[in-house]
Amino acid sequence: MATAADSQDGEEATPSPNSSENGTFECNICLDTARDAVVSMCGHLFCWPCLHQWLETRPTRQVCPVCKAGISKEKVVPLYGRGSTNQQDPRDKVPPRPAGQRSEPENNTNFPGFGFGGDGGLHFSFGIGAFPFTFFASTLNLNDGRPQPPSAGTPQYAEEQFLSKVFLWVAVLFIFWLLIA
Amino acid sequence: MAMEKRLQKELQALVNDPPVGIKVDADQIGQNLSEWLVNVDGAPGSIYNGEKFQLQFKFGSRYPFESPQVVFVGPNIPVHPHVYSNGHICLSILTDDWSPALSVQSVCLSVVSMLSSCKEKKRPPDNAIYVKTCSKNPKKTRWWYHGKQCYHSEYKTSLLGMSSMGINT
Fold it and tell me: Where is this region: Disordered (chain A) (predicted)?
């Protein structure tokens, strides 16, 4: 088997005009040299028109034809060879192949993470969302600039005590409901 | 057009560098690339050693995006739990699991490998009813790929019916 392959390679070593080199850059679908080449995240090479047609054929189950990895239009990378763009413009029938994504290089001039700079950067906030718990949470906010509670004996005080009890009961009922539901 | 170009390439590759036990006759195929006969040998070391089979491939215009129709033809249909006596093959890559990266060669190798993994020559359990009722095109059968067993859908429903009636199959 190995010797057969070797002798085959030996013959192939002489330059043959029409066979492409080793098939490394052949589309996995049309078996021709890939044009408008795209490569999947799993590393498999296709013509964009071929891959697009395959994705259209199975819209519900989009998998790489070679390795069955998940694949999508957004997650293929176009390959741009040198000077290949001005050969022809084949984007007439199929939608144009997705553009490459270019991310800016990171620059680490500042100490990373804590930017207490002039842009007023850092905001922390703590909170617990569900209603009965905010009841407890709000009691933890000390000196947060709200007006002082009214002094005991005023009608406003009584009203607030009443409201407070109502909300407490609502909270208790809510928790009870959560427990039995 | 794309289909013909690709089939031409596949044919050339198969003629120039055939895998062991797989032979295709380019002259017989001739100009009509949409139908091929491929000669396949049972693999040495398997229970089909020394047997010769013939596979018929029919390619639609949407090949390779759609799978070819592949059936065993000729005098010798292998006796195998996934091969019906009319030549139809229950193999998932021929329908649901088809991929355009597969080829005539890889299909042939898969079929040979399917044969080789078999320990006992046996027809599928639903062979008689399937052969009577099936379409000529195996791709029209709704196959259930089910581990070792292979059912077409009517057999599956009858199986389910039986088990719901308390009959153990």
Answer: 1-21, 79-112
The residue among B73, B61, B68 whose CA lies nearest residue B110 is: B68
Q: For residues B96 and B55, give the distance between their C-alpha atoms in angstroms, rounded to a whole number.
A: 20
Active-site residue flag, B90: yes
Amino acid at A156: Q
Instruction: Give the closest of A8, A31, A65 to B17, CB-based.
Output: A8
**CATH number among 1.10.1740.10, 3.30.450.20, 3.30.40.10, 3.40.50.1260, domain A20-78:** 3.30.40.10
- Using one digit for the tens of pLDDT, what is the confidence trace for B87-100? 999 999 998 889 99
Distance from CA of B98 to the nearest CA of A (A): 8
The yes/no answer on whether domain B2-164 falls in CATH 3.40.50.2300 is no
- Which residues lie below 8 Å from residue B96, measured CB to CB, with a gap of 6+? B143, B145
User: What DSSP state is assigned to residue A58?
Assistant: S
